[in-house]
UniProtKB/TrEMBL annotation:
Enzyme Commission designation: 3.4.21.4
Similarity section: Belongs to the peptidase S1 family.
Top-level division of the source organism's lineage: Eukaryota
Gene that encodes the chain: LOC105365678
Lineage: Eukaryota, Metazoa, Ecdysozoa, Arthropoda, Hexapoda
One Gene Ontology term from the biological process aspect of the record: digestion
Domain named Peptidase S1: residues: 31-131
Protein name: trypsin
Signal peptide span: 1-22
Catalytic activity: Preferential cleavage: Arg-|-Xaa, Lys-|-Xaa
Alphabetical list of InterPro entries matching this protein: Peptidase_S1, Peptidase_S1_PA, Peptidase_S1_PA_chymotrypsin, Peptidase_S1A, Trypsin_dom, TRYPSIN_HIS
Keyword Transport: no
Molecular-function GO term, any one: serine-type endopeptidase activity
Keywords: Digestion, Disulfide bond, Hydrolase, Protease, Serine protease, Signal, Zymogen
Length: 132
């Protein structure tokens, strides 16, 4: 129950990061757009990839769940999505996790939340951590 208190913060951070991405995914090399940063500073940050192109960012919630924006995944098949974690560069994945399922809440101006479940759990270390 204590982890639920972090969800509003995680949602806000994920939405800010998702909005920072350009529509031209081939031009982006870093997971966190706009400036260079090492992943151990933001170890909760992941890249959501579809067909070898960056789709959106997300935040690790637990060993099996990632938080992102609903508009990023509404029109995709869950099995097509891949999560890259533990790296500052989305095209050089530290670890790859396939999405098992997703639950979306809205995709409107008021609610734009997706919770993704991965098939294999994240192994937490200095580059992969749940958001705090």
């Amino acid at each position: 129950m204590q982890r639920l208190q972090y969800i509003p913060t995680a949602i806000a951070i994920s939405l800010l990061i998702a909005n920072a991405y350009s529509t031209d995914t081939n031009a982006i090399t870093n997971i966190v757009g706009g400036h260079n940063i090492q992943i151990d500073v933001v170890p909760h940050q992941v890249a959501i990839v579809l067909r070898e192109k960056l789709l959106c960012g997300g935040s690790i919630l637990t060993k099996k769940y990632v938080l992102s924006a609903a508009h990023c995944v509404l029109e995709t098949l869950d099995i097509s999505l891949i999560i890259h974690a533990g790296t500052s560069f989305w095209a050089k994945p530290g670890s790859i996790h396939h999405v098992e399922s997703s639950t979306t809440y809205g995709a409107s101006e008021n609610v734009d939340v997706a919770v993704l479940r991965v098939t294999e759990p994240f192994v937490f270390d200095k580059k992969r951590q749940p958001i705090r």
